[in-house]
Amino acid sequence: MHIRTITQALAIGGLLLGATALTTPAFAQDGKTITGGFDVGPGGFPKNFNPLAATGGFTWLNTYFEPLVIYSAELNAIEGALATDYTVSEDMLTYTFNLAEETWHDGEAFTAADVKFTLDLIRDAASGSVFTGRLGKVANVEAPDDRTVVVTLSEADGGLLSVLAQVMILPEHALASVAPESIATSTWWSTTPIGTGPFKFTKYVTDQYVELAADEDYRGGAPKVDRLINRYFENPAAAVAALRAGEIQFTYVEPEDAATFAGNEAFRVIEGDSYVVNYIGFNQKVDLWKDVRVRQAFMYAIDRAAIVESLYGGAAKLANCGYVAPHLVPDGLNDYAYDPEKAKALLDEAGWAEINGDKPITWLTYYGSPQAANVMAAVQAMLAQVGVNVVPRVVDVPTYNGTVYQENNPDWNEFPLIYAGLQNGPNPAGINVGLNKSQLPPAGANIMRIEFDDLSAAFDAAIGETDASQVDARWQDVCKVMNEQLPWATMWVANRYGVASADLVDFVWTPAPAGGPFAAHPELWDIK
């Protein structure tokens, strides 16, 4: 299928989707206020207030919570946040963090006990934290004094600091009385949360917006603006309409929307690598996908290059494993170039007619944007040409998570296939949680229940490598196994876009996986 054919087919079928923007009255506030659609689109996580359970939305959460360490805005280094500095032992088993002097938003002192409380809470599976499995190698957390935390590992974990960069530290004095099994459902997160960040939570108006107020005592200096407001929108198009109308000063946008802002001096378009690999996931609890030839057929049946050119405007890189960064991709990979005849032959060899034939297969996703709908429609048409009948089903993030994370699902056919994305950088260990057999729910995010021994061994070797000169080679081994065994049908890594009003001063946004967090320094944001 050629590029023009994709676009024409979708347009004729009425599948080039748009959305009607809904606007609400502008906020009347005294003082300076920055309002944004901070949780719109990939990287956002609308209406989630619990950072322990967050799989996105850290752009916003990090304005009032903070981690021990954090990625730079360029995503190329990890620096201190609540930890002023840290040291790592030569064997990479002991991490020592020296803590900043700070107070919680209610005036209580922040201490090492809060860090120990947070990490111990996460390590308790009853907390429902998505980070439980990712901290599985933590053997002990000690707080020898108020300003020092020592984390000891049972074995080396090259991804530890990257994980800790997403772990928001919580107040022991406010949450210690809440049983771990009740943490996830506590109303505290959306009513009276306290953090250490530059802004303090003031109110949540259900399904409309969250408002924060400046913390005048923040250690980085009093914020330049009085308030931050995060508005909720049903879709990116509604947020774009609000941006154009001057109701908000920032939002994530789809690539085609980003192009419409080019050259407009009233706005600044921000573009960057998403560090997220999009993939079609095969639920290994479903017998349809046991034969690797069926998984290979998916790759050959989909004209990924045409979709990238037509629907992403060329702003994506094809992924033949979980990575696209050159230093992580070895030579000699199968590029799975578009070949529908080969796809048909592989399906015939695997006995697809007897396995499933043209019976419909539910294809679940949480991607609700027009662009994602067009991508899935194109893939659906291509798979149909080789005799595979997939039916997209779009749900919101809470419904999706509630479905795929069930530990003992009574009906795995509820999600035999998914279309999703997972962080593949800046630390390559990001996708370990979705592919290693040690990361099956509830401990981790291996929602496709992939238990491939060679793949898990490759991940373990890469994460445990302590020789810096060998690290890239270990991750190349992971890439090679993924390319051969296809636990996922990897699609691409796309660029992402945000648009900010030119009235914003010193505003920093990075299209980071899961929304970061990263060192955006919201205390320095200002508005003309």
Automatic annotation (TrEMBL):
Subcellular location: Periplasm
SUPFAM superfamilies: Periplasmic binding protein-like II
Cellular component, GO, one term: outer membrane-bounded periplasmic space
Database matches in Pfam families: SBP_bac_5
One example of a Gene Ontology biological process annotation: peptide transport
Name of this chain's protein: Oligopeptide-binding protein AppA
InterPro entries in UniProt: Peptide/Ni-bd, SBP_5, SBP_5_dom
GO MF term list: peptide transmembrane transporter activity
Protein family: Belongs to the bacterial solute-binding protein 5 family.
Domain Solute-binding protein family: 78-426
Record keywords, A-Z: Signal, Transport
Organism expressing this protein natively: Devosia equisanguinis
Transmembrane segment boundaries: none
Lineage of producing organism: Bacteria, Pseudomonadati, Pseudomonadota, Alphaproteobacteria, Hyphomicrobiales
Classification via CDD domains: PBP2_NikA_DppA_OppA_like
The keyword Lipoprotein is annotated on this UniProt entry: no
Signal peptide residue numbers: 1-28
